[in-house]
Design brief:
The structure is a single chain. With about 90 residues, the chain is an all-alpha fold. The chain is built from six helices and no strands. The chain has a domain of about 55 residues.
């Protein structure tokens, strides 16, 4: 059985982790968000990665918007994703 050191993986590939937090946040469900909550609780992820994911994802709140207007949903997610990326990379650099 192969073991993976997630702490080293996260610290070596932080831009990829930020991007993954944003991409997982785009999913209109709250379940995938739990991955980031658990990794933060274990001390594997820094708080700002959890913050980035939380900014982008709204759980089930965006489902009615998705059903009503797909273009409005895409615009809202684009704004959230841009804000999440900006905050993620600013926190990583500082």
């Amino acid at each position: 059985m192969m073991k993976v050191d997630l702490s080293a993986l996260v610290s070596n590939y932080m831009p990829f982790v930020i991007l993954m937090a944003v991409l997982v946040g785009i999913i209109p469900e709250s379940g995938p968000h739990m991955i980031f909550v658990l990794l933060f609780a274990n001390g594997t992820l820094p708080f700002y990665i959890l913050l980035v994911n939380s900014i982008v994802q709204e759980g089930h709140v965006s489902l009615p918007l998705l059903a009503g207007s797909k273009s409005a949903w895409v615009k809202a997610k684009a704004v959230n994703a841009a804000a999440g990326l900006l905050i993620g990379f600013l926190c990583w650099v500082v």
